[in-house]
Amino acid sequence: MIISTTAGLVLAGILFVLGLVSMLIRRNIIFMLVSVEIMLNAAGLAFIVAASRWGQPEGQVMFMFILAMAAAEVSVGLALILQLYHQLKTLDSDEASKMNG
Amino acid sequence: MGPAFYIAAGVAIFSTIMVITRYNIMHALLYLIVSLLSVAVIFFLYGAPFMAALEVIIYAGAIMVLMIFFVMMLNLGPQTAGDERHWLSPRIWIGPAVLCAVLLIELGYLILQPPVLPAGEIVMVDPKAVGKSLFGPYVLAVELAGMLLMAGIVGAYHLGRQKKKITHRFLERTAQ
């Protein structure tokens, strides 16, 4: 096969950095959640590439755990965004800076 | 295999860039689905067909459908896209983007260094080995993932529950 481990790792790095940039520059909460998803997916790609590099199943096992964690995180995150939107009537993350307990 | 990888990688990078630059949430989510599908192609090329199927089913299917239904339920309208256009001015994003580009160049340089180990070829890992590993040494982590999903369900229900509003119609009229 022609594709190398290096190309996969560079692609994972590029996707992770794109997610990181989106996380840093966005102020819409849904977009911040989406960029977390992009970063998790890039990390999973790195695990898969490492698994195929060494021929061990541990990388794929770790990707399944990332998948489960992403599902739980998205459900809780969307519920939090729903409550925030009902209380503040906006998706701006700066509005949620007041922690009135 | 080489051209397939580079085509899929190009599609993944382009659609991810489109995700992070859209103003409308729905357009960004559709581009994100395309990005996840191309990453699934890359998983297939790296000898992980079962993970490619899981990526399509769980990420591009379940999680993205959940987010699209959520955006539909919020019923945001064009006001939010206008807000987003206002928030995403170049003065805001140019600094973090340049710093992250520096980090990316450094990362690529470190990866492209001549490797210590001889660069191996792609090894196919079949799903049977993954299953034996998952329910062999990692069975405790599987149980923990199950507990995490349970906590996610209960937490999402608890947070997303609407407060039941009990108001008599006469009382509501006097309250206005």
TrEMBL record, chain A:
It is found in: Cell membrane; Membrane. It catalyses: a quinone + NADH + 5 H(+)(in) = a quinol + NAD(+) + 4 H(+)(out). One of its GO terms (cellular component) is plasma membrane. GO terms for molecular function: NADH dehydrogenase (quinone) (non-electrogenic) activity; quinone binding. It is a multi-pass membrane protein. Its EC number is 7.1.1.-. One of its GO terms (biological process) is ATP synthesis coupled electron transport. The chain crosses the membrane at residues 6-25, 30-50, 62-82. Coiled coil: none annotated. Its main location: membrane. Keywords: Cell membrane, Membrane, NAD, Oxidoreductase, Quinone, Translocase, Transmembrane, Transmembrane helix, Transport. PANTHER family: NADH-UBIQUINONE OXIDOREDUCTASE CHAIN 4L, NADH-UBIQUINONE OXIDOREDUCTASE SUBUNIT ND4L. NDH-1 is composed of 14 different subunits. Subunits NuoA, H, J, K, L, M, N constitute the membrane sector of the complex. NDH-1 shuttles electrons from NADH, via FMN and iron-sulfur (Fe-S) centers, to quinones in the respiratory chain. The immediate electron acceptor for the enzyme in this species is believed to be a menaquinone. Couples the redox reaction to proton translocation (for every two electrons transferred, four hydrogen ions are translocated across the cytoplasmic membrane), and thus conserves the redox energy in a proton gradient. Belongs to the complex I subunit 4L family. This is NADH-quinone oxidoreductase subunit K.
UniProtKB/TrEMBL annotation, chain B:
Pfam families: Oxidored_q3. It catalyses: a quinone + NADH + 5 H(+)(in) = a quinol + NAD(+) + 4 H(+)(out). Its EC number is 7.1.1.-. The keyword Disulfide bond does not apply. The keyword Acetylation does not apply. NDH-1 shuttles electrons from NADH, via FMN and iron-sulfur (Fe-S) centers, to quinones in the respiratory chain. Couples the redox reaction to proton translocation (for every two electrons transferred, four hydrogen ions are translocated across the cytoplasmic membrane), and thus conserves the redox energy in a proton gradient. Belongs to the complex I subunit 6 family. This is NADH-quinone oxidoreductase subunit J. The lineage of its organism: Bacteria, Pseudomonadati, Bacteroidota, Chitinophagia, Chitinophagales.
